[in-house]
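User: Batch of two.

Assistant: Item 1 of 2:
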Amino acid sequence: MATLQEKYRTELAPALQKSRGYANVMEIPRLTKIVVNMGINTQVDKDTFKALVEDLGRITGQRAQVTKSHKSIANFKLRAGQPVGARVTLRGARMYEFLERLIHVALPRIRDFRGIPNRGFDGRGNYTLGLKEQTIFPEIDPDQVKKVHGMDITLVTTAKTNEEAKELLKLLGMPFAAANQAA
């Protein structure tokens, strides 16, 4: 069985080049990285924070980097340097493996799933998807979860427009919702 990365190289890139009429191979849009970000409430205790960071590492297969606040904000009870989240940047084979698991395993496990929303594009060919809970990934045992928490998954592409990016992601297998359907 061919991996998603091999499928992109052998089938999808030539199909995109033909359909869009790219003269140069470097013009073909491709996925450069996936950033998985989890903003964690500063009011949670250290054990829960550590468990959420470990969950993110288990989901992505790569150790999560703890992000810290840059500024102190009194209204949020936030001090500079205080841990506020975790993120993982995936590239190469690990990125394609994660995308494959997201498309074929995690997204179908969402209750009443009818496709991902079309409104997650930023105008420059990148797509961000928000998930409400980490338990949709098979690596996470729902019984062991201390706190259900969401995350943002950003797919960064070399596409210049949203249309190019959407075509690339559709070919990779992203299940977009129907245009007339609100997700």
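Item 2 of 2:
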Amino acid sequence: MNTETYHVPVLLSESVDGLNIQPAGLYVDVTMGGAGHSRAILGRLGSEGRLFGFDQDADAVQNAPHDGRFTFVRSNFRFLRNWLRYYGVDQVDGVLADLGVSSHHFDEAGRGFSLRADGPLDMRMNRQARLTAADVVNGYEADDLARIFGVYGEMRNARALAAAIVRHRSVIGSVGTTMQLQQVLQPLLHPAREKKEMAKVFQALRIEVNGEMQALADMLTAAVQMLKPGGRLVVLSYHSLEDRMVKNYMRSGNQQGQVEKDFYGNVMSSMRLLKGYAQEASPEEQERNPRSRSARLRVGEKTA
């Protein structure tokens, strides 16, 4: 598969610039995907530089660069610290994460991520994982479904959506495909915002199936711990829950965003945000790649 069709990297030069790459440095791309960011990083490394690329999806293996400076790790990025220690790495110069779902996943109907094509309710990033979207939709109680749609999808009518699914299960039967799910929920969505609201429902299910928020917290904790002083953490996020967590870690080094101060009121944070705002894709990039419209780029630096 052509890596350009697998995934078009968002804010490519801006995110790689954010790493402030040193030619002999050691870097990690924790979301290799189509390897667009990885190849750009390798292009700036010298012969002594080194790059690790993580991806839990077996489909991504074929995209791994054939480069002696590159090491592919097929794993969820939540295990970042464990794997780097396995390879004898204690500190790194930079970590990059693009939290968006690859174009490949949306374009392959059988993965169950797409609103456009009918497919099984799967949504697993790692197809060896046990929990699928079908398990969630057909097995969770109404309160749990409402929590997922409300918290992860930020849907105001989360309880009504959950009730519709439970009602369908009890009267007609289980929901098996992406189109069936859309048919069940469509009457509850605002006609002018139907696609956007349905995308939020799918987002919520995907986050639950893949345990994305806890995995992100684990990865950010590991990244903060393993960065050298002056090392960079670069993250592209695509919804407010991710961006809020990323901002908190970059501002304070912890998930809560609590900045500690010493007796004299001096900030004691292990990280600092390099900009007080998230960078967005240019209008030209958004026109060229619509999936970049929701992207938010933040860069943090290890202080000590």
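The chain has 13 helices and seven strands.
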